Amino acid sequence: MSQAITQARKAEKLCEVPIGCVIVYEGKVIARGYNRRNTDHTALAHAEIMAIKKACRILGDWRLEECTLYVTLEPCQMCAGAIVQSRIPRVVIGAMNPKAGCAGSIYDLLNDSRFNHRCEVERGILKDRCSEMLKVFFKKLRENKK
Known about the structure:
By secondary structure, the protein is of the alpha/beta class. It has 5 helices and 5 strands. Strand 1 (20-25) and strand 2 (28-34) form a beta hairpin.
């Protein structure tokens, strides 16, 4: 999770919401991603999507069945859907997202039995660090708008 936080800091330097993600395969980080929506001018540039695309390219397959995804903030519906579609078996989450989270907060897309794939989910890893980073970012953003 600490490496996902490092990715989130990269987003923060770009004035993006600080969300970071890493994907691990056979004990090694094979892909990294961070939020780039404003930078890339696309709603699709979430940390998880960026990392999943890289991991698929590295492994040469759309199935990431032997991987673990670490993300600093609970995935939204798009990212949770991409995680299910790419067959990632394990997801580790820092902070939960009560306003948009789809891994247990608003909805639990990662464990909906109607889908053909479900994920093992671990929540709250380095939660305080992940939450604080977001709180500070949004506080500064509000102050700058005044």
